[in-house]
Design brief:
By secondary structure, the protein is α/β, with parallel strands linked by helices. The chain contains 13 helices and twelve strands. Strands 5-2-1-6-7-8-11-12 form an eight-stranded mixed β-sheet, sandwiched between helices. Strand 1 (about 5-10), helix 1 (about 15-25) and strand 2 form a beta-alpha-beta unit. The longest helix is centred in the middle third of the chain and has 22 residues, at about 185-210.
Length: about 325
């Protein structure tokens, strides 16, 4: 077992899967969850099934602790992997900030903005690492997760320019687990690429309750997705000089279809799951981020504004 202590904050599908993989790799792992979930998780094995294989972590191998009141061992972790929703990053990190703890933070959220929130909460002394994850997961029970889609490793890098030694140690350790993780020196463009995917697919699927494959097979949703992509590509080109496709139709035909149909046609996005469960979505960090980026370069993104409003209406109706 390595001396690297990794704390995973969040007991959703991503948190459970990541904690299980690091435990399988030989790390000392603490899983930080709501106080009401601590007892149930302590006495049960953690099971992960699906596209990354079948894995079972025995009860007791992962230490379980209260996320709202982290104990001394949790506060002294080397790396804190935050798997909450983007809008909860600040409040999730606040108990660490209040105790003066400044662990390195690995953020696993959709969209843009989480790194800046983490920096504002913990200050400049805590290294902040960002990720882009193209792995779909569904939690079927308190300790059961299915990996339903996987197209690439979790890409990790220092979006805000922090030193990366500890991150690379964690990635090297992760090679002994089952969740693939890789270092990405160009993490900003990778996050932008994923943002393009998520802002096209997730809210569109959430509005009409369809899988990724169904969205692209239907000519109406496919055309709308291409129009969303047009707005995002224009904003990326102006803000970052980055344009992974000439236009939305080319992106859908040549890029998006090549990702979805071989690997994720049957996947229902986390936003679909959030809407159906009556939970708040990350729409402000996804399509809202595109709206803000477009405005910052003197452009508009009316389709992204509209779909953000519609998702908010779905949230209000839940």
């Amino acid at each position: 077992m390595t001396d690297l202590h990794i704390a995973v904050l969040g007991g959703g599908s991503v948190g459970l899967c990541l904690a299980a993989s690091f435990a399988a790799a030989g790390a000392r792992v603490t899983l930080l969850v709501r106080a009401t979930s601590v007892a149930a998780l302590q006495g049960q094995p953690l099971r992960v099934t699906g596209k990354l294989g079948d894995h079972c972590i025995p009860a007791g191998q992962i230490r379980i602790a209260d996320a709202a009141a982290p104990d001394a061992a949790s506060l002294s972790c080397d790396l804190l992997a935050v798997t909450t929703k983007a809008y909860d990053v600040g409040s999730a990190l606040e108990p660490f900030a209040a105790q003066g703890a400044r662990p390195a933070v690995l953020l696993l959220q959709n969209g843009m903005g989480a790194a800046e929130i983490a920096r504002a909460t913990l200050g400049p002394d805590a290294p902040i690492y960002s990720t882009a994850m193209m792995i779909g997961m569904v939690r079927h029970g308190p300790t059961e997760v299915e990996v339903s889609a996987q197209s690439s490793p979790i890409q990790c890098g220092a979006l805000l320019g922090d030193e990366t030694g500890l991150l690379k140690r964690a990635i090297a350790l992760a090679e002994n687990g089952f969740v693939p993780i890789a270092y990405d020196a160009g993490i900003r463009e990778t996050i932008a690429f994923k943002l393009l995917f998520n802002t096209c697919m997730n809210p569109t699927g959430a509005l009409i309750g369809r899988t990724y494959g169904q969205l692209l097979e239907n000519p109406h949703s496919r055309a709308f997705i291409a129009e969303l992509a047009d707005e995002t590509l224009a904003a990326f080109a102006a803000a970052y000089a980055y344009r992974p496709a000439r236009n939305g139709k080319e992106y859908v035909d040549d890029v998006l279809s090549g990702i979805v149909f071989p690997r994720a046609a049957g996947h229902r996005s986390s936003m679909v799951q959030d809407i159906e469960a009556g939970r708040r979505t990350e729409i402000d960090f996804l399509n809202g981020a595109v709206v803000d980026l477009a405005r910052s370069v003197g452009q508009s993104a009316p389709r992204h504004e509209s779909i953000r409003a519609l998702i908010r209406a779905r949230e209000s109706a839940a």
